[in-house]
Structures are given as structure tokens and as C-alpha cells.
Amino acid sequence: MARSRSKTRRAPHSYPAGTLIVHAEGYGFVRTAEGEYFIPAAKLGGAFDGDTVEISPLPATSSKSYRKTAGGASRSGGRPAARVVRVIERAHELLVGRYEVADPFGVVVPEDPRIPYDVFTQRSASPDVPDGALVRVRITTYPSRNTAATGVVEEVLGEAGKPRVGIESIIARHKIETRFSRACSEEAEGLTLEVDKALLKGYADLRQRCVCTIDPTDARDFDDALSLDYVGEDETALKTAVLRGSEDLPALQGKGWEGAASPVWRLGVHIADVSAYVPWGSSVDVDARSRATSVYLADRVVPMLPEKLSCDLCSLRPNEPRLSLTVDLFLDDCARVASYRVYPAVICSDARLTYDQAQAALEGSAEEEGVPAPIAQRLAGLSRIARLRDAIRRNAGALDFPSVEAKVSLDAQGSPVEVVLRKKTLATSLVEQTMILANEAVACYLVSAECPGLFRVHERPAADALAGLIPLFEEFSWFERVDTTKFAAGDPFALQECLAASKGRSEADLVGSLLLRSMKRADYRPTCDGHYGLALSAYVHFTSPIRRYPDLVVHRMLKACLYGRPELYDQEVSALRWLGRHCSEKEREADEAARESQELKLIELLEQHVGEAFSGVVSGVAAYGLYVRLDSTAEGLLPVRKLGCEYYSFDADLHRLVGQDSGRVWRLGQRVAVVLSAADARRRILEFRLAGDTVR
Within a 10 A sphere around the Cβ of 554, how many other Cβ atoms? Predict the structure, then answer.
């Protein structure tokens, strides 16, 4: 007799879930709450790199068999094997690939090697696309075990194999919007600068004030400008300096918060008044809100605002009147804030300086760089104020991580030419400190006036994240002077001590990088919860409304305080919470895309130097090898098999590999001499081998 089935309802099976990271060779990894799993190429189940997936662990015997295959052990890193059961969320709606004619189909072969599935399109739907063209395709059906991926060609980008192909793939991967809506473009083109109308509305006329902008050499949008004037200690002179005798003009005022003495300096921070052109709910606003930020890629800028605004009406170009939202900060001789005023104004920049020009002027070469004497004199005063402000922030517990930014210079075709390393200078610090001060003043006003806004919030790091660094840092003798209890608790002065103690050593950049990774990421919120890294109780982003949407929101809130609430004010205020989340997510995507684009161009540049020797620092340690970071910031893998014939054991706690026979140790922060053995930009691969002994 047949066995009857149990009527007991089975509980639904719960599978581990996580984000799939696919390697260029076809296999992948998924990190879940239960641990990290190795996904063989044959077990991807139609999932793409970046997809959120559910996985099912394979039997232990299967995991062992995968590790026994050629290269299996180095690929899996000893992780258990699993297969993708279901895709929860897709990371890709658009792909960039090479179009191949195969009537009746047009087959799109993805440029990203981490996407191992071709996309089939109907040739009849796009008959004019030439064979071999680079196209952007929208996926309509994702692949499964029984069906291929299908899609629709949305745009022909050019000829495949050209230098800009990789960046197009990054744009598609991160879903970066590159076209403005027709309504947005038409609205932007109809906007005009109306200085007289602004003055009648109450804008202060500051066109006689000595003002300049300081930006990177390749900048096209200038959204912040600076001025500095000595106002002395005379009460009458100070009142005259406030607004050229026009104290009745609308302004938001606040007292200092640092116990300042009588003010002697008026520091003006003048920010492009984007809100004058982009009210909430307008067509330009809808597009800007969706983008939330400009994206700075290696070969282009994808702007938040149409060029008519970002590079023309709102850009504080020299010798042209522009509308601004100005913050005047009245400082004593120790650069402490005595009071401040925020108000709309008409300004006219006297000079557009690059950081190099400003630095040269500060070093005494103003005439050689063509910097006018009045500007050079003010730069010297601004630099002194910046140094004093930096000391005030550090005394309050602010953290300053060492950083080197690599920017790859490209030729007209988009091919890499050289790497330019950007480090902090007097000129960059001058701008940074003045912008921080203006942002803090605006935040203080919003809080004191109980005015809504989007605040920039940075939480204290988690104790376990910092505690995990202690065993590693204890490998360095200089860490003995750091109080580990305070360090683990996130005491900013203990972290300052750690950074100071490692300064000048080969591992200094690595220490700064590891500390930075242990920090929580700052985000945007409608609540003022303080900024840990800057040691500030109140902080907003106010100084870059051309490229950051939260700054535009803050401008609108200030304008509401000045002129009264606009018609859609309540609608915008009610949206602040989701706007904060949206802008934070878009910022992360933009940063990741920018980083990937620079890494891509670095690898393209290094493709020309395979076989050459380099000096680098061990920036990561894994069971399968060492990650080595070159002085150009390019990072690649030195496989464990190229460290010698002996077996190396992996110490995960101390981030090191130890030779079983020789006892030789490879650890984080160690400087090594390597030879570049492979560089493949399409597969995003850099691989090294040792070049003799470790560089001491």
C-alpha cells in the first residue's frame, strides 16, 4: 500500500542571502550572515555581478571537488561552495557591450567580463546598428537555466575597443543618468541672470568687494568664492563693513560659539545661489533631485544640473556678476568666530585661481603665476586663518586622515598619459577650512532658529571595528604610546595620537586607510546629530549647490527664513527624510563610480609597463596572496604561489602570511619590490611577482 503523505505543513526553507561579487574568470563569492561562500562559474544561476541573491550551500564533497580542480584552492580560498538559488534584486538594468549581427538577432556581448551572459536583441528593432558597434542595451528578460537574456538597444555609443568604452560600462553599472529630460533642458535654456531684479528684492551689492575663486585646474563650475577684509577694532568701522552701510537688508544673524574677542577680520564665503533658479518642484529640480550629485569620472563629469546653470548662470566666473548666498564671518585675531551673517548678494569675482596658482602665491611667487597683488595679500591672510582654524578643530578632537588622491591625466582620445598625485597643500587647506567654517555657521543658524534642513551626520565608529585593529597595530613599536582602551572606545584624541605616531613611516598611509575604513560613513539626515570626524555638534553641506543636492535644500531653507515660506515649502520639508536617504545612496554610488573609473585608467596606463619593477606596500593579506599598493595608488595581487615553494599559513587576526619552513612573514604595511607580470584593463586585473628580497 502506498505511504500516505503527512498533512503537516513544512516551514519554508530559509537560504543565506548576500551580494554576488563575480571575478573576471567567471567564479564569484557571496558574503552572508552565515559566512562567505565560493560560487563556481557553473552555479551562478543567471545572476550578474552585484545582484543580491539567495544561495544554497553545496554538499561538502562538492566543495572539496571544486577545491581540487586546477586553481580551485586559490580561487575559493578555502571557502565552502554554494549555488545561486534565486536573484532577489538585480543590480543591472542597462549593460554596455559590443553589438554582433547574427540575423535575426543582434547579440550584445558585455564589455564587463564579470557579466558572463550575452544579451539577444531583435535585429529588426535596430537594423541600423552596425556590426561591432558599442551599444547600451536595456535588459527585458534576465537569463535562466533554460533561456537566454534578451533586451533592447537604447543607444549607440561608438566604436567598440575605443578608450572610453570602460567608462561607459561603469556608467551603466551604476545606473548614472547622462541625459536630462526635455522639460529640464528647455526650462534651463529659458533662465536668465537678472541682477537689477535681485537688487530690488534685497540682494546686497558686493561687486566692489575683492573676491576670488580657487579650484582645480580642470574645473569648469565654480560654486564658491572667498574674500577677506580687515575691519579693525573700531565699532563704527565694523558696522560700516557689515554690508557697506546697508544693515537693513535681509540677513540671518548669529553670535559666535567660541568665546571670541573683538572681531578684526571679515571672512566672506560666497556660494552660487542655485536656489534662485531652481525652486522645489520645477523641471530642473526634478532632474537634479533624481541625480542628487554630480559624478566626477576619469574622463568626464556627469553634472547634476544642465550646463546652462552649472557652467554659466551659477558658475562664479571672473569679471561677471553672479548671484550668491554669502556668509560673512567676523573673526578675532585668533580666528575665533565673534558673529556671522547669512544673506543673498550680487558679487563679481576678480580672479579665477587654480590650486597651483594659489599655492605659488602663498610660497611667494604670485607675480610669476599672474596673481594680482591684492589677491595675493588676502591669500596670505586666509592661509593664516586656515591654520588657526585647523588648530582649533584638532584641539576639539577633529581627525585628519593622511590621503593621496591619484588622478590620471588623459589625452584627447581618452587614453591615459600620466598619474598626478594630489596631496594636501596650504592652498587646498585654505579652501577646506573656510568651507568647513561656513558649513558650521549655517548649521548653527538652522539649529538655533529651529529651521528644518538636511544635516551632514557622522557617527562615532563601532568599538569592535577599532578593537579589531589593535592586534594589527601592536605589531608596530610606535603603537605602544597609544592608550588602547581609549582607542577602542573611539576617543578621537587616541586616534589622533595613532595617526601622529605613524606619520613619516612606510605604513603611515596604510594606518590612515585602515582607520578611515573603520569609520562609519557620513550621511544626510533631517536631524542634527553631530559630526564625529570634524568634532562638530552641528554641520551641513552648504558650499556646493551646483554639484550636491543637499546643499541646494539647505539654501532653500535659508531663503524661507529670509523671505518667508514658498508655496511648496511644506511638501519639501515632509520629503527631507527620504531625500536624506536618497542623497546618501547616490553619493555612495557616485564615489564608487569615480573610484572605479580612476582604477580603470590606472590599469590601462600600467598595461604599457608590464615587466617593469615597482616599489609598493602590502595593503591587504588573504589566504591566496598579498594585495600590493603602488605609489601611484594602483593596487594588484601578488599570488601566494609567487612567494616561493613553501606553504604559507594565513593569520587572519594579524593580517599576515607566515612561511611554514622559513618562518618568513608577510604583513600589512610592509614595503616590497615587485614586477608587474600582468595588466588587463578589461578584466580589471593587476598581478605582480616578487622582484628579489623585500625592500627594507
Answer: 29
